[in-house]
Amino acid sequence: MKRSVILLALVFLSSLTFAQKRKVTAAESLKEAGKLDEALETIESAVDPNQEKSDKTLPWPKTWIVRGDIFQAIFQSDDENFKKISDDPLSEALRSYKKADELDDKGKYDKELKIKFTFLQPDLTDQAVQAFNNQDYNKAFQSFEQLLEVGEVPVIKQDNPGVVDTVIMYNAGLAAYNAEKYDQAIKYYRKVAELGYNEGRTYILISAAYKMNKDTASALEALKEGFEKYPNDNDILTEMISIYLQIDQKDEAMRYLNLAIEQDPTEPQFYFARGSLYDALNEDEKTIENYKKAIELDDTYFNAHFNLGAYYYNKGVEQYEKAIDVPANENERYEQELAKCDKWWDLALPHMIKCHEIKSDDRATIETLKNLYYRMVPRDEDKYQPLYQKMDSLLKN
């Protein structure tokens, strides 16, 4: 009699377990029939610890696999009503598949889970790219991180031991940077930099992230580190020089500028930067020489023309100050000093005209030309007065 009672109890418990697991089967069938709302409701009751006998389905890997499938189907659905069911279906799908993998201690579902994770990757990639293009950088960063997370799952990683997806890691850094998560950006950029991905460009991005974090010292150190690995990368050199100029370390800026010119003597930007630096150091001949060299290499280099034109113009103004300081009874000397102004302004004029040709709406150029023509009116009123009026009119419009 006792044995019969025990057998009946075992049959009863077995039927309860089967009934509970039948929810999972039902949820899977509803998903296949396209009834995603009902499928989700059914599977959620199977993983709800407050539901009776949920202890039969909660530790069952298949429960979580089906749950992951339903959430992935919600993401893939074109039906807006289904899309409203979950704000972040792929995160739920990933969480569910990982839970199944964690519970599957005997590896019974390894093959099935490998397929699930493999098919999850393109969905996460699409979501990451779309979010990035839509400037939803937080979502993009989350999705790129989840792709990296999938790559670390044992059933995926065992097929590619030691392989690192540098492209995804790099994109995670880009998304983090745009999401203003600069510490995270640095973390991922540094990982790919160690692997040599994108060479010197990655160190420039590391430096940019440090600068956004207001850490100029670390930004500079990152560039130095990159320059040691890629000594022929002029973009790194340019960034280093820029920082040295910003922090007013002129000697270091000059040292790296000279090195940059040695490596690439055809780059006008380096001569322009060196001309600017010599200008700050009041070394007139070297200032002019470097600006001229930049223009020689690129006759359309607006900044080089403008700086050289402004340099000549300011020298003329300085000379004019000297002229008006001459005592009133020294008229001959006054005329001599005044004539020296015209020589500077004559040198400035062609460069400012060239600037106006390159950028016709640049107000600083128009203002300088207006002042130059004004100073030249006494020499030839018929020629320069109309030009002065033209510049004055442009400024008023």
Distance between the termini: 108 Å
Rg calculated over all Cα atoms: 36 Å
Strand content: under 5%
Number of strands: 0
Kindly identify the CATH topology of one domain: Serine Threonine Protein Phosphatase 5, Tetratricopeptide repeat
User: What is the top-level CATH class of one domain?
Assistant: Mainly Alpha
Write down the overall geometry.
elongated
Average the pLDDT over all residues and give the rounded result. Answer: 90
What is the helical fraction, as a range of percent? over 70%
Label the structural class: mainly alpha
The number of distinct helices, counting runs of at least 4 residues, comes to: 20
Can I get a quick summary?
This protein has 397 residues and is mainly α. It is 78% helix and 0% strand.
Write out key terms for the chains shown.
397 residues; mainly alpha; Serine Threonine Protein Phosphatase 5, Tetratricopeptide repeat; 20 helices; 0% strand; disordered N terminus
Describe this structure in words.
- The protein is mainly alpha-helical.
- Among the domains are: about 20-120, Alpha Horseshoe (Serine Threonine Protein Phosphatase 5, Tetratricopeptide repeat), CATH 1.25.40; about 300-395, Serine Threonine Protein Phosphatase 5, Tetratricopeptide repeat.
- It has helices spanning about 1-30, 35-45, 60-75, 80-85, 90-105, 110-135, 135-150, 155, 165-180, 180-195, 200-210, 215-230, 235-245, 250-265, 270-280, 285-295, 300-325, 330-360, 365-375, 380-395.
- Helix 15 (about 270-280) runs antiparallel to helix 16.
- The longest helix has about 30 residues, at about 1-30.
